[in-house]
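Quick illustration for those who missed Monday's session on complexes.
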Amino acid sequence: MITLRILTHQDVPALCSLLINTVADGGSVSFMHPLSENDAKSFWEKSLDLSAQGKRVVLGAFNDNTLISTVTLLLDFPPNQPHRAEIGKMMTATSFRGKGIAGMLLKEAEKIARDKGRWHIVLDTAEDEGAAGFYEKMGYQRIGVIPEFALKPYGGLTGTILFYKKLT
Ligand SMILES: CC(C)(COP(=O)(O)OP(=O)(O)OC[C@H]1O[C@@H](n2cnc3c(N)ncnc32)[C@H](O)[C@@H]1OP(=O)(O)O)[C@@H](O)C(=O)NCCC(=O)NCCS
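Prediction with coenzyme A bound:
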């Protein structure tokens, strides 16, 4: 059975495995391959510290007790942008892809955003082997491409595609 919940520091080991495997599989989620356990741990510890301060929400989807997907809702914006949120670190374990899990998590993140009065969502995804098709299916509007924005996990530059969605 698939369940969704907000993640905490107790979930760091599972988050590290998911992130390391996603990067090894070529997923563009800010890191280069090979991603060390220490760097992954440091990233998630900081992220969950920010979550504890209310600056973001880290969500996870579980198959029974196994973490199979995660997404982060970023909420830390300047005083003149109280309506905004951003989506980041969306990834599903390779063996669970194509089953609607990321879609479920993204909808839950949008619900949390709406409940917090955040109706303006921005995100970006790699132009090469990224998730543009997924975000289009989820109702995000493509704004444009910034060329040569980041390195792919195994090297070589890729552009990033910017997306926006206004929650109703
Ligand atoms: C992108 C990702 C999170 C999607 O996870 P998932 O759990 O397989 O997604 P879902 O099954 O919920 O997909 C929902 C829909 O989007 C489609 N979709 C998923 N990934 C897609 C992609 N990369 N390109 C095009 N369409 C995609 C699915 O086919 C599905 O369509 P359907 O409803 O018509 O069947 C996953 O492929 C992943 O972890 N990729 C590597 C990391 C990454 O690139 N993350 C995005 C960083 S911005």
